[in-house]
Amino acid sequence: MAKPHEKPWQSVGLLMDAARPERPQLVRGALWLLLAAGLEALGPILGKRYIDHHLLPGRYDFVEMGTLLAMVLAVSWAASWTRYAQLSRMAGVARRSVLRLRERVYAHVLALPMAFFDKAITGQLVSRVTNDTEAVNQLYRQVLYVMLDSSIVVAGSLAAMAWLDWRLMLIVATLVPAMVIIIKGYQRLSAPAVARTRQLRSDINAQMAESMAGMAVLQAAGAAQRFGARFEAVNGEHRLSRIAELRANAWLLRPALDLLNVLLLVTVIYGFGLRELSGPMGAVEVGLLYAFLSYIARVVEPLIQITMQFGQLQQAMVAASRVRALLEEDEHRGPPQDGRAIAHGALRLEGLTFGYDPARPVLHGVDVDIPAGDFCGIVGHTGSGKSTLLSLLLRFYTAQQGRITVDGQPLAAVPDVAFRDAVGLVPQEPFLVAASVRENIAMGRPGITDAAVEAAAHAARAHDFITALPQGYDTRLGEGGARVSTGQKQLIAMARALAGAPRILFLDEATSNIDSATEQLVGEALTALHGRVTVVAIAHRLSTIRAADQILVLNHGRLQERGTHEVLMAFDGGLYRRLVELQTLEEVASAPPGG
Ligand SMILES: Nc1ncnc2c1ncn2[C@@H]1O[C@H](COP(=O)(O)OP(=O)(O)OP(=O)(O)O)[C@@H](O)[C@H]1O
Question: Is the pLDDT of residue 3 over 50?
Fold first, then answer.
């Protein structure tokens, strides 16, 4: 992953990108905010006129005074209403921009090469797509609203003050650098507490995710209490750290800002006093003083608002830069895909050498020929490279040496869409989505009709158990849905793979965790595909591939033996024969007594 903490301000570009389609809205919003600030700046000037022209000289012209008061009210109401309307508009822009960003991040993650997911931590990825983009939402609201609005109000008030008396305005303007200095000092002092809270928060999330994922193991090992205590400890630490942070805020930041405010008021009043002494001043100064005091309040409060947001703003910036780092992950997969679709599914592996770390190959010079429509089994000890070989066939990785061809053309040249259309996979851990059986089989692929779904279920020998479910094909599965057994899940996964009418079907230890009866169903389904679909199946359970046209026996990443079950069994002292004998012994040992 790219370094997330590098120049967080660069992430502003990311926000601009996501908000680009709404630029007219943003410009309109900023203009309206400008108008609101202008209206707001009018208030004290009207007040000054009220004092200077009516109250002090004792000129009680009720019509004019009433009009002035009404104008003050109208102006302040119009300013508030305009700002409220703009807040809603900005919130809308923020929501839509975050939606756009989230979709972009998710689409990007889906397109990343498998090698990326080897290094990525799932919890962190989920957090990038959800929490971090949500933090970006905060950023929009703060940048777009609080920052923009407050800066406009401050600028408007300073401009009005300059119009009234530019020298006094300059005194007030010193507030801005003074505040920057205070904030910088505060940030330096509170940085350790802020960093600690952030770290503890991510620890809490990580612990929570870990316990949820491993709940069965955790409960079975009687570790629930220990985990609870550990969680409590981290939670308690987080609370203390957060209190320390808030304390620093309450004891350092706010008092310093308030002190600054008081100093400023004293200076301005003192400035008025000096002018009183040095020149002919009159009652008019009272109105001016009133206007200035009003403006100071209008400058101080937004500035405090801006400063109070800084901590959150920083966090949101870090989140945005993490999202940006993820978006910068390379989607590139290799050579141009200018090949043809897969018509037959004949596979050929030539001198295939591959290592996740190129310096340490896990497959060494594998040569295999799998004619179209053949059934090919792959066996070997654990860690011998079976799944790795399958990953290369699925194009999750690219081999460092050698090549894979399909129907005579390089596998890498087949366009993505054509590849997905032609290839089906039944993984070891079947994955069900929270949807109906029908949707789980069709998986949203266009052109898969209900009839095709049922035909696939028949072919996968899954139809009988599906129709026995409470709502048949409309029964909901996955989280919150009906519970089905591992074997049934596997049959649905098989139906899903077959519904795509694949030319090539890969099975990754699809029969390892299922009972013999279901294994037999899978076996029947595979036999029925013979001659029509090329099947490549990794099997721990050797009975699954007994009928294969050829069995590849891998040993430490090398192809040690190859042939049909009968040929390999005839090979005295051969690896396959030993594996079969070992498995038979295991089966005998684990069979119930007398069974
Ligand atoms: N994503 C990965 N990153 C780095 N090394 C890996 C990765 N996956 C597997 N390996 C390593 O590659 C070697 C072959 O593993 P592979 O999973 O292909 O074996 P296998 O024969 O499928 O084993 P099993 O029967 O246990 O599934 C092992 O040494 C393993 O540690």
Answer: no
What share of residues in the chain are helix, strand, coil (percent, to 5)? 65, 10, 25
Residue 546: give its domain's CATH number.
3.40.50.300
Pocket test for ligand 1, best of 121, 386, 509 (most atoms within 8 A of CB): 386
User: Mean pLDDT across the chain, nearest whole number?
Assistant: 83
pLDDT, greater one: 319 or 23 = 23
Work out which ligand 1 atom sits closest to the CA atom of 428: 27
Q: What is the pLDDT of residues 337-373, one digit of tens each?
A: 788 889 999 999 999 999 988 899 999 999 999 999 9
Ligand 1 centroid vs 385 CA: distance in angstroms? 6
Tell me what ipTM this predicted complex has.
Answer: 0.95
User: Ligand 1 within 6 A of 278 CB?
Assistant: no
For residues 393 and 283, state if they share a domain: no
Query: Of 17-31, 257-271, 379-393, 478-492, where does the model show the most confidence?
Result: 379-393
Helix (H) / strand (E) element for 528: namely helix 516-529
Domain that holds residue 276: 8-327
Asked if the structure places residue 181 within a domain, the reply is yes
- C-beta of 388 in contact with ligand 1 (< 6 A): yes
Nearest to 168 by CA among 256, 268, 101, 74: 268
- State in Å: Cα 399 to ligand 1 middle: 15
Tokens (6 digits) for 406 = 């399909």
Query: Given strand 423-426, what is the order of strands in its sheet?
Result: 423-426, 504-508, 534-538, 375-380, 550-555, 558-563
Contact by Cβ (8 Å): 156, 346 = no
How far apart are alpha carbons 391 and 356 in whole angstroms?
A: 11
386 CB under 6 A from ligand 1?
Answer: yes
